[in-house]
Input
Amino acid sequence: MNESENLIQQLKQGDEKTIRDLYMKNKNGFLLFAARYKLPHDDLIDIYQDAIMALIENAKRGKIDSLKSNISTYLFGIGKFMIFQKLKKEKKTYDLADFGNLEYEDESYDESVYNLQINALEKAFNKLGEKCQQVLKLFYYEQKSMDEIQQELKYSNKDVLKSQKSRCLKQLKDLTQEKVN
Amino acid sequence: MEKLIDKYFEGSLSILEKIEFENLRLNNPEFEKELLFQENVQKAIENNERNILKNKLKSFEVSKNKPRPRRKVWMVAASVIFLIGLGLFYIQNQTVDVYSKYYQPYPNTVAPTVRGGSSTGRINDLKSQAFYAYDNEEYAKAVVLFEKINKVEKNEYANFYNGICNMELGNFVKASELFAEIKSPNPYKNYAIYYNALCYVKMDKNREAIIALKKISNMEEPLKSMVKATLSDLE
Output
């Protein structure tokens, strides 16, 4: 395993020290790189944090297992894309050529989506048992297949896992239903 | 139905299944409702996870603003060397003024001035304003700002730096009160006791100064050497 594969592995596990080291190591470089876009310092920190988050999320979802560039380059690519979105949103002027060939694009990673049901589901999710949280997180957040989850959580067969997941979804429905009534 | 939705989230629908999926989504309200529910579940978990992670990353920024022990030690070490030099100068002149021999404003280790600060974030702003004033030796201005910070945010540094400002302004009683308010656990606790002892010296309370210094005579370097030297001059 080379260094960057090792790092991605640690990120998948959410290792706090790895995340911290990655964050600290790249921060100044990112701020220097981003300085020319004339955004307020606090905004840049915010964007940097979102870029780190997207990186970790993509690692967990297995999207960067075969990453060609090094992690820092990839991270800055995400950051650059997010700066581009920010400038567009705030209707600031920017040099289009500068953003002509973005290495990274991901429209899905915008502001968090909120509506009443999502809001209620967030609260309900935290009331679920550990097992349910684990299964649902692996399936919906880390976007693992049922086969992968079966292996990871050592379920004897896929049907047991399937009915477990259904039970968990049912619980969420009941919990959010109570809220409405 | 369940199988199709699972496959949709797994991204493993075949072409034929995709057609069936779209068909159901458009024509079967129950299917559509279930799909929407699960998409919301996904969004909710995602929001949860992102909030947790975001808070963690934010905490990296906060803890970074606390004085870093190594740098603090280095800075104080530098001031100790300076103080020793100063001490030698005074010894040569046969004057023992403990206060001016040992007193030096504590370095700003909290918010080193950065160019191009931003205008958002109220507390951050107050904080950088306060330390900007402190670094520029505008102590009266800094006092006001540190007091404001205490009103809006729980923090570990404001009383300590406010104390130093008051020493600079010659308000030793006020400074002493501020240092006394610093209770452990607080990274400035031992240095607060040290500066408080220097306040006592200024108030002609050498006995209290000695008692205070003895409390911290066995702390980490370079504080230990500072305390030892000050004590030997006082006793």
Summary: The two ends of chain B are 87 Å apart (CA to CA). The longest helix of chain B spans residues 29-65. The CA atoms of residues 120 and 213 of chain B lie 42 Å apart. The interface with chain A takes residues 2, 6, 9-12, 37-38, 40-50, 53-54, 56-58, 60-61, 64, 114, 116-121, 124 of chain B (CB under 8 Å).
